[in-house]
Amino acid sequence: MTTRYAYSIDLDRCIGCQACTVACKTGNEVSLSDTYITVADIVRGQSPNFFGSFAHHRCFHCGDAPCVTVCPTSTLTKWNGLTIVEPERCSACGYCTDACPFKVPHIFENHVSKCIACLELVKDGGTPWCATTCPSQAIKFGERDKILADAQARVAQIKPRFPNAQVYGETALGGLGLLMVLLDKPSVYGLPDDPQMPATLTAWQQVVQPASVGLTVTAIIATGLSFIIARRQHLREKAELHAEEARPEQSPERSAAESKDAAVEEKKDNG
User: Fold this and answer.
1) Are residues 128 and 30 part of one domain?
2) Cis peptide before 48 (omega within 30 of 0)
3) What is the rounded distance in angstroms from the CA atom of residue 80 to the CA atom of residue 143?
4) Percent helix, strand, coil in the chain (nearest 5)?
5) pTM confidence score
6) pLDDT per residue as tens digits for the range 189-221
7) Same structural domain, 45 and 157
8) What is the pLDDT of residues 220-260, one digit of tens each?
9) b/e map 112-134, b = 16+ CB within 10 Å
10) How far is the CA of 159 from the CAs of 156, 167, 168, in angstroms?
11) In total, how many domains does the chain have?
12) Cβ–Cβ contacts within 10 Å for residue 224, how many?
């Protein structure tokens, strides 16, 4: 049975230190002008009853990932629950950005950019840089079942302090590969309450994509017929050329003599 991996971020433990963003950028050699993870402060309420937390914006590795569904070049694919990237395949069409309910994938230097799940490190049995570096153990990585169970246990512990605490992403979009222990409602963190595949993408799957496949097949058939017709015409012209070349050539003198003989014969007939 294939292992399904997942991350979790416990926002009760997160101290907003940005260690994860630095480790991710360094470990994955991300350009200084780009980033896979952003962490922002959230402050709500009025003095003295302030609510402070941190919002993480990064790939959620959706089980049923809209970005993977819509990608026309297979740049984005799934591997053991993680949404991985092969940037050399990317055509920079931007469909993934439009399809993602979290608006995470973005085009940078003509290819899609987002968390690559430290794939090579994970394949070698390692742990992603963000989870390894987090000083407060707010970020964890492992088999999804265990990560989910741990997140649910954490919510049960902090409910007395945060009545709206919840595990975000347990079942949405086939179950997210990034589970978040939220201290308040998702909207507080700028997250959709019920992330879903965009309706336009559903229409694309049901109507546009099949139609485009049909048009592609039609175009292939038309191209094939054109090729057959052109090839037949070429063969016909080639055969006529060979036949012309096979006829015996006559010298000018012989042609003149034959013309003279023909004139004599015609004169006899008329005489």
Assistant:
1) yes
2) yes
3) 10
4) 45, 20, 35
5) 0.74
6) 999 999 998 877 766 556 555 554 454 455 445
7) yes
8) 455 455 545 655 665 676 666 666 666 655 555 555 555 56
9) bbbbbbbbebbeeeeebbbbbbb
10) 5, 11, 14
11) 2
12) 10
